[in-house]
Amino acid sequence: MFQWFLGGDEKVPGMARMLAGFGQMLDEGRHVFVTAANAYLGHTDIDVIRQDLFDTDKRINHAEQQIRREIVVHTTTHGVNSVPQCLMLMSIVKDAERVGDYAKNIFDLAELTPKPPSGNFRDDLVALKDRISALMVSSRVAFDQQDEEQANDLISEAEAIEDHCDSKISQLVSEIENRELGVSYALAYRYFKRVTSHSLNVLTSIVRPLDKLDFSEHRPESEN
């Protein structure tokens, strides 16, 4: 979808600038997710990272607003030919912004939970955090290069992560006896899944037309 704009055409410097800003949003989003997740898992002191997390989220929000303004200018200048790309960029910019929101949710959970996760669930959440972080790094590379083959592989990985989170939530609902811990863990899996889902939406922009954005070809319509 963005190949024409990434080709270095001097006629579209505004789009190149917007895509650079979007890439920065992806990097900042991974940073706040990992920071918040580490706080929840007990790897980082909450008070130490609080200001950095909220400052980074503000930068993400500011970048989204800046890109929106530039989209308006760009479509006015370049006309209807750029509308599909601009609409898609508008959509995935919102996905990048939502990652920051879910990172704040994870941080809130860290503040509300009396003690960090423990046992098998903690081990699984640690591994899942690292898996999602790696996905986000690779997604940035795939987007920058508009690499469809890599994007399809990453889409499959993202969907596997989503399924894993759903499975753990179902397990928590049916098995765990400590209600307080069960709610905390289930919310953590839910927020981890949502971060993954927004990364997945970005990946679909590489391989899907605008009308299929955010929809998986591998899942039934009811699961999209």
CATH architecture: Up-down Bundle
Unreliable segments (pLDDT under 50, ≥5 consecutive)? none
State the helicity in percent bands: over 70%
Shape: globular
How many DSSP-defined strands? 0
Q: How would you explain this protein's 3D organization?
A:
By secondary structure, the chain is an all-alpha fold. It has a single domain (about 5-224), classed as Phosphate transport system protein phou homolog 2, domain 2 (Methane Monooxygenase Hydroxylase, Chain G, domain 1, Up-down Bundle). The protein has six helices and no strands. α1 runs antiparallel to α2 and α3 (about 85-110) packs antiparallel against α6. The longest helix has about 35 residues, at about 45-80. The protein is globular, with a radius of gyration of 18 Å. It starts with 12 loop residues before the first helix and ends in a 17-residue tail after the last helix.
The gist of it:
Helices cover 79% and strands 0% of the residues.
Which helices and strands occur, and which strands form pairs?
Layout: H1 13-41, H2 46-78, H3 83-112, H4 119-145, H5 148-175, H6 179-207
Helix pairs in contact: 1-2, 1-3, 1-4, 2-3, 3-6, 4-5, 4-6, 5-6
Keywords:
Methane Monooxygenase Hydroxylase, Chain G, domain 1; 0% strand; 79% helix
